[in-house]
Amino acid sequence: MKIALLDDNPEQLERNQRFLNALPVEIVTASLTAKTFLQEVKLSKPDILILDLNLGDSYMTGMEVAFELKLPVLFASSNTPEYVKEMERLKREESLCVDHITKPFTEYEFQKTFTRFLQEVKFFWNQHYVTLDLGKQKRTKIAIESIVYLVADKASGSESNNKQIYFTNRKAENLIDFSFSKMEDKGMLKTQFITIHKSFRVNVNHIKHYNKKEEVIEVEVFNAFGKLETMKLPVSENYQSFLKSFRK
């Protein structure tokens, strides 16, 4: 997994990097300020954050960074007791893996704590990701929450089992040999991916609006130009009863 480090103490930042070198992870970002850190993680796309809490500047605290990025986070700081309630809120409201270790700590203490934390993250990672065949990319790991909707690939003909899949963070892809009837076997539950039409399955968490008059729902997807674009998807009569009570 990819790790991003933030600590305003250069010596501590270097120590944390050194402690991680013995573990099966990749450090993709190591920053001394929150502003630089937030800029860099947009490109490095880490899986886990290791954050100091008080950063010595007025831009943001480590806790504010954690709430901004909403990624699994290990807080490594000298003042963790002051933030325990906020850590609990972050874990509860964002359903994230959250842990802490209080400075000063030894290499052994850090590695022991991080290894246990990594095991927890991997467990939840496997619960919230699916493995799909996207075009020529076989067995691609995809965050379930990044999937907006799936639609039958009409261009391939009715005999094809291919689909088009749309995301919040990457352009649409061809989903190869994928059956709607076996979505739950892949980990995509019917309670989350609802049917609105025989050709569409939509992540209910991404429905922005249901237009009863036009009989369409509105969703936002990542387009070919790297921006979010609103799309309208048709709702068949058979599936309108659920959406009539939908409030968003």
Automatic annotation (TrEMBL):
InterPro entries: CheY-like_superfamily (IPR011006), LytTR_DNA-bd_dom (IPR007492), Sig_transdc_resp-reg_receiver (IPR001789)
Modified residues (4-aspartylphosphate): 52
Residue span, Response regulatory domain: 2-118
UniProt key word Cell cycle: no
Keyword annotations from UniProtKB, A to Z: Phosphoprotein
Short name of one Pfam family: Response_reg
Name of the featured protein: Response regulator
